[in-house]
Amino acid sequence: MNTALRLSVYGAAVLLLAAGAYVAGTSAGTSTGHLRPPPAHAAPREDTPEVRPAGLASTADGYTLEAATPTLPSGAATEIAFRITGADGAPVTTFDVAHEKRMHLILLRRDTAGFQHLHPEMSGDGTWRAPVTLDGGGTYRVFADFTPTGGEPATLGVDLSAPGPFEPVSPQPSRVARVDGGYEVQLDGDLRPGETGPLTLTVTRDGRPVTDLQPYLGASGHLVALRTGDLAYLHVHPEDAPGAGPGITFHTEVPSAGTYRLFLDFRHDDVVRTAEFTVPTTGNAAPADGPAPAGPAARPGPAGDEHSHDEGGHR
Ligand SMILES: [Cu+2]
């Protein structure tokens, strides 16, 4: 090989190397996409904002729910005490009235049995207290639902332990609740993830529509919806004009597919009673923890009526 040819071969090799580097550079940068920086959809999408349900944290927006004790006795009348502290650690003592009360306390065992809705009283030092009786042992979730004066409405949650045995319940899908006193409450409407939709609860007593429901907390009734699995606490809005029944309509949005537990407090004959339901979402795959819903217009047959306060859904 003469010198000129050797130089030209060398030059071609350099060109090839350079071309290869160029190709590698372009493929990494723009052409194939495999090596490109993550595309835009890896970042939070503006069209599907993250839904953060309430009640999953004991601290939010500078406010903290502090239980006086981490345990409560079960099987006997006792008292639950707690306070709300602000960002500076000091107890908050001024709250706005919402739904006729400055503090709503929801308490239930973590398996969703034993729902109670309490209205504690606050003493001057910011400690809230309410009488309570826990039926059995277990871990209980306590939600404080309040609006600090000058702040946003908040729902904070904390766990309390109660000594003693208990038999966990596994509520089965049920849209009909039987309640002490001869009441039956039927739930109509679907829970569709990401959508706000109406839920109507119809109260009958001894088979006859109840048309003289009494207002409770400024509405025809009060509905609490919790996601099974983590007890996320959903916002539920009653219809604007309270009626006397038999139908009570609420609007609620569920953040995800799954099964939800709903607790309706209604007042009749001067007694507040609770009807409870177990509703899987529709429009998505069935949750892993339960049978598939029968369809958007699913109505339970006799099997769907099984859950009631009396048997507690034991299986
Ligand atoms: Cu309340």
From TrEMBL:
Q: Where is the composition biased (Low complexity)?
A: 285-303
Q: Which keywords fit this entry according to its UniProt record?
A: Signal
Question: Would the keyword Ribosomal protein turn up in this protein's UniProt record?
Answer: no
**Basic and acidic residues bias locations:** 304-315
Entry annotated with the keyword Signal = yes
Origin organism of this chain? Pseudonocardia autotrophica (Amycolata autotrophica)
Query: According to the UniProt record, where is the region Disordered?
Result: 29-53, 279-315
Leader sequence range is 1-23
Q: Spell out the protein name for this chain.
A: Secreted protein
